[in-house]
Amino acid sequence: MTLARRFSLRPIARRAGPGVDAACVALLFGVFSNGCVLAVDSGSLSEGCPAGEKACGGRCVSAKDPEYGCGGLSCQPCALPNATSLCLQSGECGIAACLGTFDDCDDDDKNGCEIDTDTSALHCGGCGAEPCEVEGAEPTCAHGLCAIRRCLKGRKDCNRKSIDGCEVEITSDPKHCGDCERACDAGCEGGVCRG
What we know:
Largest sheet: 2 strands, antiparallel
Shape: rod-shaped
Number of helices: 0
Helix content: under 10%
Distance between the termini: 93 Å
Order of helices and strands: EEEEEEEEEEEEEE
Strand content: 25-35%
Structural class: mainly beta
Strand order of the largest sheet: 1-2
């Protein structure tokens, strides 16, 4: 639906009595000259839009269309992070679906799908997942699985398996003394073979 706009003539400099300067009459025919400007009564733009619609770009659009910001005052499209949008009953922009491996873990539509469950150590593999804990290491999340970010001091991942973390204490293990590949016959102390 196209809206009919109300226009008023506003001379910049002079007026002839109580009426508009005669020079401004030319504006009625689309001629902008003689120091006159065209003033638009913006309050009238929404007049004529039926219930459930609003004025955007000189026409009525649905207040339930995320491409026009739903029921908000702006006509800017909904733009939620890492999500496609829909319109909530409140008239606000909401999440229709999350993109890729992102998810909405805080149930707050305003910040979109804020967690990448593929890389978040707090929500690794899904919003309901327990935070990653890895033995003897700082944890991370890789492809939705808990993994080793780095081993703690004095620990090593000698079997190359994230599931048991950095499982070796290289400061005292005689089979891996100071390093995964160093074994000691007389024992290991402080990462150094005895004797």
